[in-house]
Amino acid sequence: MNASCYTLSIFRPRQGKEEEALATWKKLIEYFHTLPHPPSGRGVVMRSFDTEGKYASFCPWSAREHVELVRADSGARAIIEVLLELTEADAGPYEVVNLVG
After folding, report:
1. How far apart are CA 75 and CA 66, in angstroms?
2. Can you list the domains of the chain with their CATH numbers?
3. pTM here?
4. In this structure, what DSSP letter does residue 84 have?
5. CB-based contacts of 60, cutoff 8 Å, min separation 6
6. Which of 13, 23, 37, 77 has CB atoms 3.0–4.6 Å from 66's, for a disulfide?
7. pLDDT tens string 25-46
């Protein structure tokens, strides 16, 4: 994986919307992979061991510019808007500042 940045989200599906939120997240990542500058690896969703209903997701990108392009893409925006209706989320892009191992 050649990633210089990641999109990262901490989210909680709204009550009764967990399955729909996870399916929509998968749809978003699949859509990302149809774009001219797709993610540089697989998207990942993780569920908290400690906090019921809390999830984290991330997706690697080879360049910040690719993240900016996808965030401006109307198809991606439409799916993201659905996710925002289904979840309470804190999301955004992050750059890699250190790698270990």
Report:
1. 15
2. 5-88 (3.30.70.100)
3. 0.89
4. H
5. 1, 3, 5, 6, 39, 40, 41, 42
6. 37
7. 999 999 999 999 999 999 999 9
